[in-house]
Design brief:
The protein contains ten helices and six strands; from the N terminus they run H-H-H-E-E-H-H-E-H-E-H-H-E-E-H-H. It is an alpha/beta fold. The chain folds into two domains: about 40 residues, no CATH class; about 180 residues, 3-Layer(aba) Sandwich (Uracil-DNA Glycosylase, subunit E).
């Protein structure tokens, strides 16, 4: 019994450290119960590395395939978003990533730098990745659309239709163990539904035989910090799935 209580205290400490890192100000009253019902998961050990510190034998093929896909996109003019963009935000990270995060689309900071999730929402995502036991460069990060919608509006159907095939191809090339879809647009696009994200999150779905966990977008969490702990619950389920 004493050992069990010690473990619960350790779990609570881990969760509280995550809340602090994520800037969560309100702590759920049933935090102890949450820790008892779902142990705080630690990231699984990475599989054995091959030559050059890379997992598996398909590294070179994946690099070549991603480069070919980027070349296929070219100076894309497939939808009206191309008219206002500064940079195409292709995506970045490890081609051997176990986890792939897929968001909605670039914002102003991403458009300027040509990199995904580098603004305030990106900083929050990076904190989550690190608290899950990974470095940002260990995972792969992309978006449903690769050009910034004007004034950060939601991507429209024709824009999603024109661009989403590329993130689907990226996921197929990288073949992660788990995809985390960030927000409504990403989730609804990838699993083909109109169900609200609040009802979808917390449960696994399948995207082309890859387990997919929907969760809230970091931008939403900046506006609704009380829901950050729900994202941590989703992250725990992802870590548990990686052990299988």
């Amino acid at each position: 019994m004493q050992k069990q209580n010690i473990e619960i205290i350790k779990d609570i400490k881990t969760v509280l450290e995550f809340y602090q890192a994520m800037g969560i100000e309100r702590i759920p009253l049933n935090i102890a119960q949450k820790c008892r019902s779902a142990e705080v998961q630690k990231p699984p050990p990475h599989p054995p590395l091959g030559k050059g510190g890379r997992r598996g034998g398909d590294y070179s093929k994946k690099v070549i395939a991603l480069k070919a896909l980027r070349d296929e996109i070219g100076d894309c003019q497939r939808c009206k978003l191309s008219k206002g963009r500064k940079n195409i935000v292709f995506g970045e990270g490890s081609v051997d990533a176990e986890i792939m995060f897929i968001g909605e689309g670039p914002g102003e900071d991403e458009d300027l730098q040509g990199r995904p999730f580098v603004g305030r929402a990106g900083q929050l995502l990076t904190k989550l990745i690190e608290k899950m036991g990974f470095k940002r460069e260990d995972v792969y990060i992309g978006n449903i659309v690769k050009c910034r919608p004007p004034f950060n509006r939601v991507p429209e159907e024709d824009e999603i239709s024109a661009c989403s095939p590329f993130i689907r191809k990226q996921a197929g090339i990288i073949s992660p163990k788990v995809i985390v879809s960030l927000g409504r647009i990403s989730t609804q696009t990838l699993i083909g539904t109109k169900i609200p994200i609040g009802k979808l999150r917390g449960k696994f779905y399948q995207f082309e035989n890859i387990p997919l966990m929907p969760t809230f977008h970091p931008s939403y969490l900046l506006r609704n910090p009380k829901d950050k702990w729900l994202v941590w619950e989703d992250a725990q389920k992802v870590l548990e799935r990686l052990k299988k």
